[in-house]
Specification:
The complex is a heterodimer of chains A (396) and B (464). Chain A is of the alpha/beta class and 396 residues long. Chain A is built from 15 helices and 9 strands. Chain B has 2 domains: 180 residues, no CATH class; 195 residues, no CATH class. The longest helix of chain B has 38 residues. Classes of the chains: A alpha/beta (396), B mainly alpha (464).
Amino acid sequence: MPLLHRCMWLALLGVVGVISAEIMARIDDAVRSGTPLLASPSYTDLTMQDSLGTRGRPFARFEKWKLNGAGFRGQEVALAPEPECVRVVVMGASETFGYAESPGKEYPAQLADSLKRTGCYEVINTAITGLPTTGQIQLWENWVSRFEPSVVVIYASPAFYLSNEPPEFHAPKRGGATTPSASFAPRLVTRLKDRIDYPDFIQRRRVMRKIASAIRGKPVTWVYREVPDDRIALFRLHLDSLVTSVRAKGAVPVLVTHAMRFGASMNQEDQDLLRAWRQFSPRATEAVLMDFERRAAGTVRDEARDRNVPLVDVAGVMTGHTRWFADPIHFNDTGAGVIAGTIARTVERIPASASSVASRAQRSGVSHASLVNSNAGPRSIVRARPVKLANRSDPR
Amino acid sequence: MLFNSFAFLLAFLPITYVIFWTLQSAKSRYVWLTITGYVFYGYWDPRFCLLMAFSTAVSYTAGLGFLRWSDPRRRRLLLIIPITADLAILGFFKYANFLMDSFGKVLNWGGAGVSIPHWNIVLPIGISFYTFHTITYIVDSYRGSIKPTRNIFEFSAYVSLFSQLVAGPIVRFRQIEEDFERLGQADRTRWLGLGVSFFVLGLLEKVVVADTLAFFVDRELAHYQLLSTSGAWLSMLGYSFQLYFDFAGYSDMAIGLGYMFGIRIPINFNSPYKALDPSDFWRRWHISLSSCLRDYLYIPLGGNRHGEWKAYRNLILTMLIGGLWHGANWTFVIWGAYHGFLLAAHRKFGPVWDRLPRVFRQVSMFLLALFGWVLFRSTDFGMAAHLFATMLTPTRGVAVEGLVPYTIVLFLAGAWAMAGPNAQEMHTDWTPTRIRVVGLAAAAGAALAVMLGSSASPFLYFQF
């Protein structure tokens, strides 16, 4: 066979192989996760904006992630809780949503398994990837509170507060929900990208280039060389607002300190991961990223103490234990089990009377102030200002 | 290392292949196959290469002894000592905890209240397979069925041949002796197309069919207590086809790899779900194992030479040991005994059975095999009993997730396994026509797409 014919023949075989691979990737997605054959879904399709704000797209599915009709991860849930059962809502971002764990191993799912052993508990994972505390407040007020939880576990991610602009309240979208991306994206390319594991030295160069590109042209003062106190204060303010709002709806908030994989000593892998993490917050140096996490954990502890909120000090238990993390902040299956067990021990201790009093208060329309008063003491009343804060920051 | 991993496909196989065919002499090719076999095996845990080296050295030395001595007493010793050594290693790594646990349970039934320690023993992958390779070599040398090789490299290449090292087929030395002897004159292009075709088909069976079924089956059986009757049936049907395509896929890949290196490895599966009776089933399922059990266990036990009842006993005993070979668990032992009883029953009532309609016999044999797989898949008798009870009595349970796609995959897999051609039949008079080559490119593309989407899943028979 002449060389030209041979090359053409090989090219044809290559084309056949690629087309077949693309078709098979689509069939495989349809079979394993129910993704429509002709759709081109992405991770961002799991969320949407509508008149209620940012929330999970009902029945959305992408790869291992599946949302129910309410846009939450997990089984379908009724609006009203089961009688005689304690409904626990877990709010947070990707760490809570379950980014790296196997399906069913995200910590809210493992929390449900732990709590089921001790009584009738119903756990709902309402986390939304990439949603800072401002978004959590809107999500709670506009959507999650309708599910009448008795206990709300709050795992707030501090790193959002190191973005170029601090987290803000966004106006709900008018005129219907955003639609999923419709442009064609080859699934084979997505699979290849997910699969490619660059050698460390190449990965380091890519990360450095991205960070350098992000800070290019910015004044020297743009980069945080120490923890910005105003951002910590804002984090506290938003957290406080969420706590108040949760109490206002008659639920018991539970605050959880944010854990990370980096402890006192770090090996080369940790250092690479820390630098890679900085891609998402290039304004902060690696040292500031870590200090900010530590300060934020302290802030959560202070908030819990000042507002008399049950505290789960996950940062104290897990920070520095690299084997429990898949990356800087996301848990692996084992780590998710550890945090679930730690939270379960606190939730179990919340007296049923507290949660039921809260729920009863909500259903019977007891005033916000008296409820806060009964749960958290006089200091809480002084600090309760959720609506004010929301209105002040709302672009509307 | 797994055949369905990118490390194997993109690095190990191309490097092994190119260097193998660059080398010219048989000896250098033996050495290269030995080296690559140990790399392949050591990729999982290098420490266990020593075990394989020890087993190789013992059997090779025994072979030299058979060449040197014709005195029956010495030959008998050369038979017993190395086999005992091989079985002792296998017994320690595979059965020590099982025997201790069972012994402890027996004692505690009697109220002894004894605490038996559980040793932290890691089962070396593929030990059951290469132990079988060395034992068959020793027995065949003793019987005079083969002339033991004096070439240590030839023998070590046979034991550590990566294509059949960790999950079979159990290739006897005499079956590939001829190709091994001529390895220096092997023609690279002669069987290349056939080898690639077998390999790609095996990859398709494993990655696309078996792993897709496993996705559903593993998820459902993880909560087997909650399954409904239909859910239990669907799960076990899926497992039956998953197991077949998983192991047949591996065997086809091994055969394909053999062809690529100029070694013809015999067929290991011949559409077992087309079997019409238990004897037929075992002539089609894991052929290399069942023929070994027949030649090295059933016949030495007396076979059918001493009357009907002893033949039944020998059948049951052979299958019971065959079951134990699969794993250190009583469920495997009972699974083996179950098949022994089926073989004995068929021996007794074969003439009556053979008069029944063909479709009835095929479906019935499939269902009998499926009931056996319940024992085979169960981690303990509690799980097996629960699955049997759920399958045989109407039970409500949770709905099967993804029922429609699962049923479609199950139907397609079942149609291929029970009515379609197997790899051997597809390769009869195989020539690389353009349509076939295009089909292979499409199959390879499909398998790679699935591999890209998930981590390489181990083959079910690796655990044995």
